[in-house]
Every structure is written in C-alpha cells, then in structure tokens.
Design a protein that fits this description.
The protein has helices at residues 35-51, 66-75, 93-104, 126-134; strands at residues 2-6, 9-11, 18-20, 23-25, 31-33, 54-61, 79-84, 111-114, 142-148, 151-158, 161-163. The chain is an alpha/beta fold. It has a single domain, classed as Rossmann fold.
Length: 164
C-alpha cells in the first residue's frame, strides 16, 4: 500500500507569537509539523504497519522545511519529499494544492492523508483541492479510518456526531 501524507510546516502555537505592522512576525518563532498533519503521519504509519507498504510525506517549502521532514522520518515515515518553492509563504491554497497534485499524479498512490486544517491559517482547503485536481474522492474531518481489502471504512465528525 502506497500511502502519501501531505504536510505543512507551521509555527509552534505554544510559542509566543509577535505582531509587527499588523502581521504575525515569525522571525523568532519555532517551526514544527502542523499538528493535524502529524496526526495524519501517525495514522499513515499505523495503516502501513497493518497492510504493508510505504509512507511518503510530501510538502511544499524551502530548505528550512527539511527539519520537519526529518522529524516525519524519525516518526517512522519511509520517504520524505520536498517540493522546493521559495514563494511558498506568499502562495494561496490553490497554488500549493496544484504543486502537490502535479507531483502526486505521477506517483503510484493508494491513499493520500492530510491534516484537517493548518493551525496557522485554518482554511482546510489544500487536501480537498488536491483531491479535486487529481479527480479522486475525498473525505474531511476523519476521526477513524480502517482498510478492508480495497475499501476504506471512514468515521468522520459531522457537527459533533460520528458518521460512517
């Protein structure tokens, strides 16, 4: 099973964040894997261990993002891919999704996981946009996933209720 996880590097929300000229000043901030993407990496590793295969973490960023990719490898991911883009900080979600989809369309993919939202923006658009660009099904706000043969059984949170 080839499992891909889309990941974002974001500032650590536990750190003190400074505001300069009405904008977040992240010059002194510590950066981490977006916590929701970290959950996706953990779930991908569980699925890989249950069904054999490989976990590849993919992100758009600069060489500074390599630290978070190394963290993903230390967590147990098999591969880490950096789509190098100096303009990542000024890109919108569609541009990020387009870069990710362009890479993923040439891969043998069985399932793509990603976090629900990024803690720095909260839009939750990149994963669904990647799915749309690839022409594949997608489900958001997943709380549990299991694989049975070629079928995924998914539980998701819908307004506080669990739906299967």
């Amino acid at each position: 099973m080839n499992i891909f996880v889309i990941m974002k590097r974001t500032f650590d929300t536990e750190e003190k964040i400074a505001i300069k000229a009405g904008q977040v000043d992240d010059s002194g901030a510590e950066f981490i894997i977006n916590p929701y993407d970290e959950y996706a990496i953990e779930e991908a590793i569980v699925l890989r261990d249950q069904h054999c295969g490989e976990v590849t973490v993919v992100t758009v960023g600069t060489e500074e993002t390599e630290k978070e990719l190394r963290t993903a490898l230390a967590m147990g991911a098999d591969k880490a891919i950096l789509i190098d883009c100096e303009e990542v900080e000024s890109m919108d979600q569609f541009s990020t999704a387009t870069l990710l989809a362009t890479y993923l369309k040439d891969q043998e993919v069985d399932i793509i996981l990603g976090g629900n939202v990024a803690v720095d923006g909260g839009s939750g658009q990149v994963g669904p946009r990647v799915a749309e660009l690839l022409g594949i099904a997608q489900v958001t706000t997943i709380t549990k996933i299991s694989i049975d043969g070629n079928q995924a059984i998914i539980v998701r949170d819908v307004e506080g209720m669990k739906k299967r």
